[in-house]
């Protein structure tokens, strides 16, 4: 956590130490900064601040996505110290609701990014339509299996709306095929090592599994390690299209991954915060889009 706080402090220094007349204090609180996805979101937020000299930007995150109470404390500290707009990717929509209420009651509007929440009082939500992204994964798996076979799901932290929506989309598509049976849904907290362990358990318990959909790439890469060690021929699909995952798709490891624009989630989130501060009106959802990455188009997603 100390390293993350120091990194965030460096961001504040880049943007200016304190808000002056005409400046806008934007506080971005992410779920973590320990993966390529969240570092890309951070880069997008920094790019938006660089383009707008009026922004005084801070970026903070708990050490891990499962550290909900740590994120609650970060948000409450930010509100106590003062900010103009809170841009938040909540580790838990229900758990963060009191903190978001505190923000709003303190006169600080909330822009949600990446993860929607049942809270419902945000100025806007900036992020992927995760149900649509899940549908792309489900369609891809159904094609690969020719509509027949057992499928398992590996999801992130239980209760996170992002992962709930991705699974819902995939399930909707797979249920269109009577020959496909979903045999397991197990959490791995968005972590690679846990993804590997959970996949090992699934492959042991359900040796006839032909495909695994993981709701992020870290878990998918872990599942791939497990399948490779077992010598199991399983179609594994992830979500995020990080560089390592896309390279794996190209080389024939992962079957596919769903690309979302993590950079734009951060960039549009900060830009939306500025609009909110200036009294502008925003749509309820700023959709940053999804694309299924397979071996056929992987080159387009490699930088």
Describe the structure in your own words:
With 303 residues, this protein is of the alpha/beta class. It has two domains: 2-127 and 262-287, 3-Layer(aba) Sandwich (Rossmann fold); 130-260, Response regulator (Rossmann fold, 3-Layer(aba) Sandwich), CATH 3.40.50.2300. The chain contains ten helices and twelve strands. The chain has helices at residues 2-15, 36-51, 68-81, 97-105, 130-144, 161-174, 192-205, 217-230, 243-251, 262-277, and strands at residues 24-29, 55-60, 85-88, 110-113, 124-127, 149-155, 180-187, 209-214, 235-240, 256-260, 285-287, 290-293. Strand 3 (85-88), helix 4 and strand 4 (110-113) form a beta-alpha-beta unit. Helix 5 (130-144) runs parallel beside helix 6. It is elongated and about 65 Å long. Residues 1-18 have low confidence and may be disordered.
How would you summarize this macromolecular structure in one to three sentences?
The chain is of the alpha/beta class. It is built from 10 helices and 12 strands.
Topology record:
Layout: H1 2-15, E1 24-29, H2 36-51, E2 55-60, H3 68-81, E3 85-88, H4 97-105, E4 110-113, E5 124-127, H5 130-144, E6 149-155, H6 161-174, E7 180-187, H7 192-205, E8 209-214, H8 217-230, E9 235-240, H9 243-251, E10 256-260, H10 262-277, E11 285-287, E12 290-293
Parallel strand pairs: 1-2, 1-3, 3-4, 4-5, 5-11, 6-7, 6-8, 8-9, 9-10
Antiparallel strand pairs: 10-12
Helix pairs in contact: 2-10, 3-4, 5-6, 7-8
Give the number of helices. Answer: 10
Strand content: 15-25%
User: What share of the residues lie within helices?
Assistant: 40-55%
**SSE order in H/E notation?**
HEHEHEHEEHEHEHEHEHEHEE
> How many whole angstroms does the radius of gyration measure?
20 Å
Strand order of the largest sheet: 2-1-3-4-5-11
- End-to-end separation in angstroms reads 30 Å
- What is the molecular shape? elongated
Assigned CATH class of the largest domain: Alpha Beta
Can you summarize the main beta sheet? Answer: 6 strands, parallel
CATH topology of the largest domain: Rossmann fold
Number of domains: 2
Number of strands: 12
Q: Uncertain segments of ≥5 residues (pLDDT<50)?
A: 1-18
Q: Give the class from helix and strand content and strand pairing.
A: alpha/beta
| Mean pLDDT over the residues | 92
| CATH architecture label name of the largest domain | 3-Layer(aba) Sandwich
| Assigned CATH superfamily of the largest domain | Response regulator
């Amino acid at each position: 956590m100390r390293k993350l706080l120091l990194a965030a402090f460096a961001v504040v220094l880049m943007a200016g130490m304190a808000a002056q007349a005409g400046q806008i204090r934007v506080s971005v609180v992410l779920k973590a900064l320990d993966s390529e996805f969240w570092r890309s979101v951070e880069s997008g937020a920094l790019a938006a601040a660089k383009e707008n000299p009026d922004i005084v930007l801070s970026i903070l995150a708990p050490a891990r996505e499962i550290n909900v109470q740590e994120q609650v404390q970060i948000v409450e500290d930010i509100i106590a110290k003062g900010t103009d707009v809170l841009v938040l990717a909540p580790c838990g929509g229900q758990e963060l609701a009191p903190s978001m209420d505190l923000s709003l009651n303190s006169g600080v509007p909330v822009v949600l990014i990446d993860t929607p929440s049942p809270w419902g009082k945000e100025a806007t939500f900036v992020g992927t339509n995760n149900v649509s992204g899940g549908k792309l994964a489900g369609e891809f798996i159904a094609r690969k299996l020719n509509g027949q076979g057992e499928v398992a799901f590996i999801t992130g932290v239980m209760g996170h709306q992002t992962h709930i929506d991705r699974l819902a989309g995939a399930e909707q598509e797979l249920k269109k095929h009577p020959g496909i049976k979903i045999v397991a849904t197990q959490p791995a907290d968005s972590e690679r090592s846990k993804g590997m362990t959970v996949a090992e358990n699934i492959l042991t318990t359900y040796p006839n599994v032909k495909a695994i959909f993981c709701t992020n790439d870290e878990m998918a890469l872990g599942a791939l390690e497990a399948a490779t060690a077992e010598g199991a021929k399983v179609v594994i699909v992830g979500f995020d299209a990080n560089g390592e995952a896309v390279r794996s798709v190209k080389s024939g490891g992962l079957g596919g991954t769903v690309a979302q624009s993590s950079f734009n989630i951060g960039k549009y989130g900060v830009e939306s915060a500025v609009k909110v501060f200036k009294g502008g009106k925003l749509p309820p959802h700023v959709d940053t889009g999804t694309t299924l990455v397979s071996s056929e188009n992987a080159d387009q997603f490699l930088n």
